[in-house]
Amino acid sequence: MPPILIFRHVSCEGPGYLGRFLDRRGVAYRVVKIDRGESMPSSIDGVSALVFLGGPMSVNDALPWMHVSLALIRAAHRQRLPVLGHCLGGQLIAAALGGTVSVNPVKEIGWLPVRSGNAVGRGVLPRQFDAFHWHGETFTLPVGATHLFTSDACRHQGFQSGNTLALQFHLEMQKDMVSAWADHYAEELRDPSDTVQSRVDMTRDLDTRISALHRIADTIYDHWLARSPLG
Question: 4-225 — its CATH code?
Fold first, then answer.
């Protein structure tokens, strides 16, 4: 079967747990390292699904690869090829499908609760769970999208449109990634608040938090993968 293409925008924000999930299920994938100047495909031929990871840039930035990403998402959506986005990736999906991306009233950084609304993952998700966040922007829902997740500080935490799943939060986190991001983006942690955790707070009880997040990730990723030719 053709591989899943996973687009990485910055070196510290790789596929993480998603890669482990796909490996366990024997699903082939290839990471396209945009941060290293790797070229993006001009079409979705020979691809089974698309995944867009996070990054500190904005969908509204004039970056040379941005229009290519949006075009690939639109093409995949038209052909019902599954697309998955985390954080920036979710914002890319929203913008590609007609939504807008703008500054959220507050930043969300660290472990904060998310509430699930409409059924996803065959209805087995808890009504509320803690997810990892690192964003200062938010998206609006494209026309016809189903709103899936919300939080107190950010109304639109996720939506589904056909075989496309856009998430504002991060499911792909692993223990080492949390510490690495806290170091790499330390400037954003200088003024902790109700929605921005300190490094100490976000790295507390990491084993327990990561294990719980991965159980949620398994459910959501299974739901998404089942909609692909590989499911």
Answer: 3.40.50.880
List the chain domain ranges: 4-225
Q: What is the DSSP letter of 82?
A: -
* Contact criterion met (CB below 8 Å) for 165 and 175: no
Beta-carbon contacts of residue 215 (< 8 Å; ≥ 6 apart)? none
In this predicted model, what pLDDT tens digit does every residue of 43-55 receive, in sequence order?
999 999 999 999 9
Element (H, E) at 32: strand 29-33
Helices 17-24, 206-225: axis angle to 10 degrees equals 50
For 4-29, the pLDDT digits (tens) are 999 999 999 999 999 999 999 999 99
Q: Say if residues 27 and 4 touch (Cβ distance below 8 Å).
A: yes
Verdict on whether the full-model pTM lies above 0.90: yes
Cα separation, 107 vs 229, in Å, equals 36
**Angle of CA points 60, 112, 166, to nearest 5°:** 40
Tell me the C-alpha distance between 128 and 19, whole Å. 25
